[in-house]
DNA sequence: TGCGTGTTTCAAACCGCTTTGAATTTTGAG
DNA sequence: CTCAAAATTCAAAGCGGTTTGAAACACGCA
């Protein structure tokens, strides 16, 4: 059933039927009802592609997932997607996911712009020096970044980020306040901007506390459980082992916990730990006294909000480079305790 | 730059330019080269929506993610998506993700069929009695299920599944072979078909070993780390505590490990554990002696293959209800040991 | 009754591509 | 050379909607 058939059935012109269904005011209210009834009865829905061609709006938003052969698909990404997806559904947009080899990411954006199959894109996991933003600005494709990169002299763009630096500054402060002096940082990959900023926060707080940063206590990698386990095992085997850990992800914290308990120690009593918590639904860290003290920020909510912002941008409700920077609350947990006496 | 402009620029008709770019044989080879050069130079790419409208092929495959307010987004889903996405890219398809409230899933399929914005869909996480397959068969929308449901008298459809029952039968057998008699099963949600089949495998092997199944040792829930921790903590506190655990997910196994080490026991020595391992990239369980003994099957590869199968179906390379059932290898690990003497 | 005004409907153009069927040019055998 | 066959190219008709500008109709008032 297409528009033409439906209109013939009703003895109306396609124009009127189209308008009736799209809620234009110049249609007689009786006619409108009649059309709607007929559409419902015959299960008519306008052909998506025809409508998109006619309106010039694709109603699609692209997410590019770069993936190498043995690469890791980030659960954080999945959570973000869930949030964004909700916002898209609500606004009638489609999420278009492109899984492409890392080195083809820019080409994918170029192809998207040339063939006009998305109205905008969301950029994930910005790097310290990230070429994607300039590329997208040049292409004129509306986009928003989850995080930010801010190289010098960069054209401004839209982003949504959390206060990574502040969060880790305060978390570190908390640990030094408890008397910890040797603090290990198990961070994300150093090429990631968020990891860079968390490192800055950590270093700043150490300096402010008059402590010096030991590079041997800083590790950066994909944030997996085994990474946390192995890094912590190695560090805890040292003579002057750290008394506290700062982790960039709950998964890593779980690995640390495994390493700690394996040698008969206990988090909160012997070793302290604060982790960033992305509030992943499959890794809850809640209750009245959560297992881990944390700096917490919901990635899912970030996805939802980023999608909203992008849609506002696409539909012209806001102009120019809008940005949002979220505070990150600190939450107490059982993994925190005073530094042991030397 | 659109087709008309490009053809005027070249002094050719749109017909010829279109054919040249789409590799039709009736175009002079010189002309073809000239057209391709001009297209590359001006960065021309055909408008996606116009092409789709003209061809009647949307080149899109839908994935519906049902999500309640406080629902969990499955990391397994993310991994599957990554695999499917690779296959789509390779074949020129787009993945369209719809995040919708659970109760609207069927409506979403109906809308997809009516408005023709996907060529097919992939169904995730089939339930024991799942209404989605019948709905899709009725709609005439090509689809493939990751897993299967097989209610009685159901119309046949395409699916890709692993031998869940066999896998858990053999895993259980392994444990009983080591002398374990009280085995706990920490499964997925009972409404899920895969959990049902794993349970059947477990029960079958227990019976075969002449052991009786204790319902108190069987739990089913969303497969999170805290679920594993809490369930194991509770079970281990019993007088006749289990000596072995069978888990449906590595996340759950991590929780069990936490519970076990918290009370001063050790996996492999005091308590045995076998888990199913979906081979998630962010939760590796490898090396020469993996931490957990496991039944292992890559969800990512399943995603890749399911996508391939669906595309074959859509493009008419295969007909009728095709199915694939994968064997699940058993892998040894450090979490396995003989049952302690009574 | 006649006419201006506001309401409702419609025919036709358009979105940018593919594809059919016909027209044109080339080629090659006679 | 001639002419049928083969190789190229093209004009025009879709695909299924939206949107513009004009036509038809109804209403109220002089």
In short:
Chain A is an alpha/beta fold and 342 residues long. Chain A has helices at 3-10, 14-21, 29-41, 48-55, 75-91, 105-115, 132-139, 164-177, 193-208, 225-236, 250-262, 299-314, and strands spanning 60-66, 94-100, 120-123, 143-146, 158-162, 183-187, 218-220, 244-247, 272-277, 293-296, 323-326, 330-331. Chain A has three domains: 3-46, Orthogonal Bundle (434 Repressor (Amino-terminal Domain)), CATH 1.10.260; 60-163 and 301-326, Rossmann fold (3-Layer(aba) Sandwich), CATH 3.40.50; 164-297, Rossmann fold, CATH 3.40.50.2300.
How many H/I helical runs of chain A? 12
- The end-to-end span of chain A amounts to 80 Å
Strand order, largest beta sheet of chain A: 2-1-3-4-5-11
> Into which percentage range does the β-strand content of chain A fall?
15-25%
| CATH-assigned fold name of the largest domain in chain A | Rossmann fold
Which chains make the largest contact?
Answer: A-B, 59 and 59 residues
Shape, principal axes of CA atoms of chain A: elongated
Outline the low-pLDDT stretches of chain A: none
Taken together, the total number of domains of chain A comes to 3
Our Rg estimate of chain A from Cα atoms comes to: 26 Å
Oligomer class: homodimer
Task: Outline the biggest β-sheet of chain A.
Answer: 6 strands, parallel
- State the order of secondary-structure elements of chain A, H for helix, E for strand: HHHHEHEHEHEEHEHEHEHEEHEE
Task: Tell me the helix content of chain A.
Answer: 40-55%
Number of strands of chain A: 12
pLDDT average of chain A, as an integer? 94
| Proper CATH architecture of the largest domain in chain A | 3-Layer(aba) Sandwich
Structural class of chain A: alpha/beta
Highest-level CATH class of the largest domain in chain A? Alpha Beta
So, the CATH homologous superfamily of the largest domain in chain A? Response regulator
